[in-house]
Design a protein that fits this description.
The chain has 295 residues and is of the alpha+beta class. It has 12 helices and 12 strands.
Length: 295
Amino acid sequence: MLYHYTSLGAFKSILRDARTRSQICFWATRYDCFADKEELKLGIDTIKRLLPQVEKDLQPDRRIAAKFDWSIIEGNTNLPFPYIVSFTSRPNNEYMWNEYAKNNGVVLEIDDTQPEQIPDVPLLRLASCIYVDEESDVKIVEMIRQEYTNMGYGLLSGPHKEFALGVLSQLPHVFVNLIAMAMLSFVAPRIKGAKDYCQEEETRAIISLPKPAYNSLVGDYKDAIIKTGLFPSNIFTIIENECSRYRSDGRIVYYRELHLPVKLLKGVFVRRSESKKAVESLLKEMGLLIPVTQI
């Protein structure tokens, strides 16, 4: 099970489609809208620093560590971009209560053991974070090595393996660029700073899609991309479906909606009796028989 800490108001928003569509809806925040502006840069810089240990036996034109350059990646709308929903491993994490649920909020218990197809989020990954400190390099190198290998094999054994095999044999530098894109999407967001954040014990649902501006960039190449089989035609609509809201400090926050079956919500935890009554009332209104536990 995974746990999502949030306010009572946000919980009401998560349940907005529970009755009509049997779904719960999380907001996946775009990485450049995080309060910690250095977080994505940390992940990218860490890959650039440690990936050479994995690539040391490769030919120079097959190495991709140099591509993880913040000056190249920052603001580049040609690249996929991570959108994040945060979960943690237990419902009694004091740090998480204080930071995200403020003691009068709620914790949602989500079943992560049931595989679900989510059509409007084709590129979704659930992965635990690794925290950077003086002892973490060995763990991160091993994670990068495993991810690099899995991504390569994934391309060669996926639904477009013939295309991937052709690219590997004829354009190997393009093949490793695809691995670099995948690492930017799903490895960089797993790397976090250790100070305070390690107390979150965080697992992330990572959605990786380009920003909507990408659609205008590809322009006349859309048909060609679709013919490769790598880019389903409805992906352009999905890319366009980015939402925005104003944060309390007046800044615009961009996000994507992550719709999950309501059956994955297995329980709700609260700390105060008035919160318990409010949650039970809301669940009853939505016709949901979900246990509410005061801890």
